């Protein structure tokens, strides 16, 4: 692995050909008429209960009864390991970073001592860090000790217990802006090139320019991240520019010294605060925001429901929603949860549902198990990823739904079948 060499955003790049958080769909070949359902005869049913087929369907393997979900790992620290205190707990002192220093090699103890003795420096701490690649796309990561690192993040993040529990479980916490930019799906697993898989368990507004996420120290060692190459510096906010100049002179041109704005991220190479607003931290323990309302009512058949839901995303064909509904749950017959935790007739991961779930029937609740909410939510998610533009954008939007190109081929093939059956 290489050190964090360039702290610039990987704008416009999406992770490609990675392992999603649930099993990829079987390969999709040409669709036969036997695989096209009579959607007008299938009535949506609300709730977790479904009626799976008694035996596996050899023509439609996606209709097989779902496996029992694997037990979830408790979101807690290992026994005997105290969890981080809340930001208002006695003994907690927030020390927002003013500088992020990236060295091409491990910072020596002498260098760190020299920095700590500079005027205005009140606290420093060093962490491992480096760049890894997922399907050729670079991710800049820090490997941290949660007990020490917690003081360096915004107070709202310090209180997000799921962030610290995820690190203790050896999982990956993405910076929220990086998660949006790269299309990361919380709960999904990503294969590091020539390395282990990482589960994206949570996202948070870390506020460190160029840092795409954090992992625990042990995970960092497994990834081969160089030790002690990142340094955070705290001091008076008004002295940031002076501190940056002095630390830069001390370390020389081989190191990067990046100002971190008092309100969050700063642009690399400047002392000015980033004008992009950082979204609130999203973790698996966040409460769901008030559901967005996209009224499709309660149609009496899946055919009507798919057609009404497509109107959420003008330009998206209802047949794409129907194809996804068939592959994911056979139109509500197998609602899960899947072994990876995907739920409902459109098989959303709960974290993704929090971001894209809508109230489709106007009852005031976005219910992951209700087809009247799940189908328009799928349209909402696809639309957010460019599905309405058609062509390659549609293919990529479907790929975001389930990170498998064979899944994309299957969905599109079934979609063509529905278009022929319902001209």
TrEMBL record:
Domain of life assignment: Bacteria
Any one GO molecular-function label of the UniProt entry: glycosyltransferase activity
Keywords: Glycosyltransferase, Transferase
Signal sequence, start to end: none
Annotated InterPro entries: Lysozyme-like_dom_sf, MltB-like, SLT_2
Residue numbers spanned by region Disordered: 49-107, 263-290
Regions of compositional bias (Basic and acidic residues) in chain numbering: 273-289
Domain Transglycosylase SLT stretches: 338-390
Top enzyme category: transferase
Keyword Methyltransferase applies: no
Positions with biased composition (Low complexity): 263-272
SUPFAM superfamilies, alphabetized: Lysozyme-like
Entry EC number(s): 2.4.-.-
Record protein name field: Lytic murein transglycosylase
Organism this protein belongs to: Streptosporangium amethystogenes subsp. fukuiense
